[in-house]
Amino acid sequence: MSIRNTDGRYSPRNPTGPYYGVIGRNTPLRVRVGPAAQAASFLGLTPGENLSTPDHASLRIVGDLDCALDCGADWFLGASMDLGGRYNTSGDNRSWAALVSSDGRLTITWSPDGTFGARRALSASVAVSRPSHGRLAVRITLDVDNGAGGVTARFYQGQGLAGPWTQLGGDVVDAGASSILAGNRGLELVTCRGS
């Protein structure tokens, strides 16, 4: 994303700028444009295209995972879909992916060695409660070694990334500690469902 800053208002070292002392490196940013079709158009994407970033060492998480997504409530319209992740469906470069099923249950899938045969998946026991309008935040945590010889996933929903979070059902536990392939795939997020 590029921001036009010809007047220097977003420059953190500009003492005459309105944001001086307020913003700096790694300041979170939220852009809201409206319905999915408008957002896709704003980003220069066609409906169904995804937003991605190239691979980087900071994305190569092999241990516990905590991912959250803030989106329009209309994303959860009754069709299964990927929400995002670092998961290549071809080849042996599967790291992890967050998904929502057609019945509204969140799922985390991952592979310790990148292969399809070694992939694992855990799903929430309770579906997301979709508000009639507005925004919805979802969060998935994965503890790849819960100290009891297994993995534990937790699924949440909230009003925004700052929470508060409501857990969807209880902890989902599976036998056998695991890890996540570091891989070399970039992070990809779904931007819209379609037109």
What does this structure look like?
By secondary structure, this protein is mainly β. Helix content is 4%, strand content 33%. It has 1 helix and 11 strands; from the N terminus they run αβββββββββββ. It has one helix at residues 36-42; strands spanning 50-53, 65-72, 81-87, 94-100, 106-110, 120-123, 135-143, 150-158, 165-167, 172-175, 187-190. Strands 1-11-3-4-5-6 form a 6-stranded antiparallel β-sheet, with no helix packed on it. Strands 2, 7, 8, 9 and 10 form a 5-stranded antiparallel β-sheet that branches. Strand 7 (135-143) and strand 8 form a beta hairpin. It is globular, with a radius of gyration of 18 Å.
Chain-wise SSE layout:
Blueprint (H helix, E strand, L loop, with lengths): L35 H7 L7 E4 L11 E8 L8 E7 L6 E7 L5 E5 L9 E4 L11 E9 L6 E9 L6 E3 L4 E4 L11 E4 L5
Antiparallel strand pairs: 1-11, 2-7, 3-4, 3-11, 4-5, 5-6, 7-8, 8-9, 8-10
